[in-house]
Amino acid sequence: MQTTFCGKRISSILGVLPEQEFFFEDEVGNYAFPEKQTLRLKRVMGYEKHRISKPESAASDFAYYGIRHMIEQGWIDRDEIGALLVVTLCPDHFVPHISTIVQGKLGLGEEVLCADIAQGCCGFLLGLFESFMMLEHMQDKKVILVNVDVLSHKVSHRDRNDYPLIGDAATVTVIENSDTENEIYYEMHMDGSMGDVLKIPAGAFKMPGSAHTCVMRDMGDGNYKSLEHMHMDGSAVFNFVQTKVPPMLEHALRATNNSIDDIDYFLFHQPNKFMLQKLAQKVGIPFEKLPMNLVENYGNPSGASIPLVTVHNLRQQLKEHKYNCCFSAFGSGLAWGTIIMELGKLDNCEMIISDL
């Protein structure tokens, strides 16, 4: 799927982190592997530390915390909000939805459109797509896009493949109509036949949680997890990224008459440093244009990774300058997509640490 948008801009981005910070070296004893062998991953994969939410903290708590901060700091008035869109894989409940929970807690008007979307790694891209379409019908109102996941609650602490890289976080992005005529290029692909390579098998309607599904087992590779934990085929995901993403990026550049030199920053989903380095090498992207430092600082926060890596690396620059940026994400679904757009002269761009 390919399309373009005009007259839309991102005006503010807020990153919201949990207060708990854990270091990779302190968690080595969780895993059923020799310590020396495990520590090699620190250099190769870019592990250092990650942010993990408290057991009682839910996705709605992060969304509410972030939007309340924006309102209290004068980033946006309640009356300016036309829609509240939440993209997450971690609903508080089956019903009600996070967006309506947060709308009620914030006291937003009944005319505010609320919607939740279930999407992981490509959540920011899909959220922007929906936000751009909503703005076609909102005149001077703005869309609040929340990307939030607390996936550490669904990843086994004894899984060396997944737990060191997981991180919890939320981002809140304000999107609005604009007088600018700069074109926004959008491309998205999906392949559900490969969905099982990134899956939480149990806990929903297909396989409800039970005494059987919560039993921890050795998966045959020394990693212990239950059917209610995330299961990822790392090799399959790596091959998928290296095979599907480069031709998409090359097509997007051609379609927009851009070269790699024309793009100021490539702001990508952050699976781990190793995968991003290999992807950059395959496409020919200079490392200095593609920040790869999110996992080592916060972990991989799923759909929040693109706005979070943006704030982490460019928060000051984006208040003062505009850049030609390429967003790209790839993962659960499986899905992969890209956006090429101008980003900058933001009203606000900040990272805060919550008590969640």
Describe the 3D structure.
- The protein is an alpha/beta fold and 356 residues long.
- It has helices at residues 35-45, 59-72, 98-106, 123-135, 234-255, 273-283, 294-297, 305-314, 317-320, and strands at residues 2-5, 8-17, 21-23, 49-51, 81-87, 113-117, 142-149, 169-177, 184-190, 198-199, 217-218, 224-225, 231-232, 265-268, 322-331, 335-344, 348-353.
- Strands 6-5-7-8-2-17 form a 6-stranded mixed β-sheet, with helices on both faces. Strands 1-9-16-15-14 form a 5-stranded mixed β-sheet, with helices on both faces. The chain has a two-stranded antiparallel ribbon with strand order 3-4.
- A hairpin with a 5-residue loop joins strand 11 and strand 12 (224-225).
- The longest helix has 22 residues, at 234-255.
- It is globular and about 60 Å long.
- The mean pLDDT is 95.
Topology diagram in text:
Blueprint: E1 2-5, E2 8-17, E3 21-23, H1 35-45, E4 49-51, H2 59-72, E5 81-87, H3 98-106, E6 113-117, H4 123-135, E7 142-149, E8 169-177, E9 184-190, E10 198-199, E11 217-218, E12 224-225, E13 231-232, H5 234-255, E14 265-268, H6 273-283, H7 294-297, H8 305-314, H9 317-320, E15 322-331, E16 335-344, E17 348-353
Parallel strand pairs: 2-17, 5-6, 5-7, 14-15
Antiparallel strand pairs: 1-9, 2-8, 3-4, 7-8, 9-16, 10-13, 11-12, 15-16
Helix pairs in contact: 2-3, 5-6
